[in-house]
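User: tokens in, sequence out, please.
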């Protein structure tokens, strides 16, 4: 295993890494940093939680530090992200890793006033972290010039594709047509992603750390059979009985997130929701309330949760099962990080059995829902699963699971529309 010292990073970056307390590079960092430092394009499979931000930010900072700055309004590095939250978090990370490098970075995303972003760009920015729509607005207003971009990062390219941003990304890439290095990160390698690789990258090096679709080993998965109408009551019960704190709960829709938050609050459980209909201010507030422990439950849709940098969550609840099995892996990737123990809970209704089967196939593991007496279960479920022993305390700490097998990359389930819907 290599150390950060072996990767070819400059002393000022190594100092920043050391100040963060990182001891050894993660697999994506170990593999990507030397290749990026050689100036090559890369396509890397990495999801949030793997340390991918440092994997591109450190070599990017190093490259820019060694070169003269560009004319005003010209940015030198552009990082595109699908969501505002991810843009803000990547910008924070770039500021942290670049603490001892004299480079200027800023984030630009929609949902907030454009004026201050224009002012900031006028004063000079080397590294811009942006969502595609707002960046095009800025470019159309001639607040930013992309023609001198030296490094372009497409972060979570698969999510940008799912969210319909690729036409915008194409327009942006056309403007950043100079001699540039392009780094693309994607959790999945669909045919569409491979097509984009051909379009945007030049002789890319493919980096696959093999962690795709593999839930962290430290995550214990618990499933309960319960009908949709009784899920909120069961969740309230589990939270109270288990004295759960810092629970991230996933719902499929924005309305579902709001409805669940209200139900939990009626049960005197402090909860807040984060989704695409909330203003940027409300989302930032919800996240910081949750991080500070002011609310114990954060209810999120998949899109809103994407890229949230919440470390070492003890519990992730799948209130609704996701339509796309890969989303389950993203969801539970929030827990059990960095060696910490985590638990993923699934509330499975009878009409979600096929979604559970999709997840089981992807993970190559059986996940058997337990039946908890006192909660509504359809006969279609109770015929298949045994009731939980009455005397067993709630929630059970363990759930029987066969040993973990190799994850089969070949199991690619058809992708469904996954935009936030109502
Ligand atoms: P990311 O996948 O970039 O969102 O990073 C996930 C988390 O891992 C962040 O909180 C980082 O601060 C942290 N992290 C990144 N690299 C390392 C490392 N080499 N050692 C320990 N933690 C790290």
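Assistant: Sequence out:
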């Amino acid at each position: 295993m290599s150390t950060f010292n072996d990767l070819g990073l400059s002393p000022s970056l190594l100092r920043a890494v050391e100040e963060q307390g990182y001891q050894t590079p993660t697999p994506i960092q170990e593999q990507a940093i030397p290749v990026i430092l050689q100036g090559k394009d890369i396509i890397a499979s990495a999801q949030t939680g793997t340390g991918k931000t440092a994997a591109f930010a450190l070599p990017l900072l190093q490259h820019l530090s060694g070169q003269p700055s560009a004319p005003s309004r010209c940015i030198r590095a552009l990082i595109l992200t699908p969501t505002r939250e991810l843009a803000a978090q990547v910008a924070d990370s770039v500021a942290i890793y670049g603490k001892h490098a004299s480079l200027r970075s800023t984030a630009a995303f929609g949902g907030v006033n454009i004026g201050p972003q224009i002012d900031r760009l006028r004063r000079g920015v080397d590294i811009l972290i942006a969502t595609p729509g707002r960046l095009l607005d800025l470019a159309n207003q001639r607040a930013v010039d992309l023609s001198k971009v030296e490094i372009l990062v497409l972060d979570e390219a698969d999510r940008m594709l799912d969210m319909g941003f690729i036409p915008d990304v194409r327009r942006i890439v056309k403007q950043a047509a100079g001699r540039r290095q392009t780094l693309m990160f994607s959790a999945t390698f669909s045919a569409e992603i491979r097509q984009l690789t051909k379009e945007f990258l030049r002789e890319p090096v493919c980096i696959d750390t093999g962690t795709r679709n593999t839930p962290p080993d430290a995550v214990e998965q618990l499933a309960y059979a319960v009908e949709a109408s009784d899920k909120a009551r069961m969740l309230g019960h589990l939270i109270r009985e288990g004295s759960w704190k810092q629970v991230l709960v996933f719902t499929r829709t924005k309305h579902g997130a709001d409805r669940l938050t209200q139900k939990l609050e009626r049960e005197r459980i402090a909860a807040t929701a984060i989704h695409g209909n909330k203003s940027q201010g409300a989302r930032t507030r919800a996240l910081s309330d949750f991080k500070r422990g002011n609310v114990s439950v954060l209810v999120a849709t998949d899109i809103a949760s994407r890229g949230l940098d919440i470390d070492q969550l003890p519990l992730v609840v799948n209130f609704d099962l996701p339509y796309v099995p890969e989303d389950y892996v993203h969801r539970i990737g929030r827990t059990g990080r960095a060696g910490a123990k985590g638990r993923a809970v699934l509330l499975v209704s009878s009409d979600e059995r096929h979604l559970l089967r999709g997840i089981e196939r992807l993970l190559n593991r059986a996940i058997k829902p337990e039946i908890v007496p006192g909660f509504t279960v359809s006969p279609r479920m109770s015929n298949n699963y045994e009731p939980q022993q009455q005397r067993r305390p709630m929630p059970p700490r363990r759930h029987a699971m066969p040993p973990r097998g190799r994850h089969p990359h070949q199991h690619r389930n058809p992708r469904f529309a996954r935009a936030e819907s109502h």
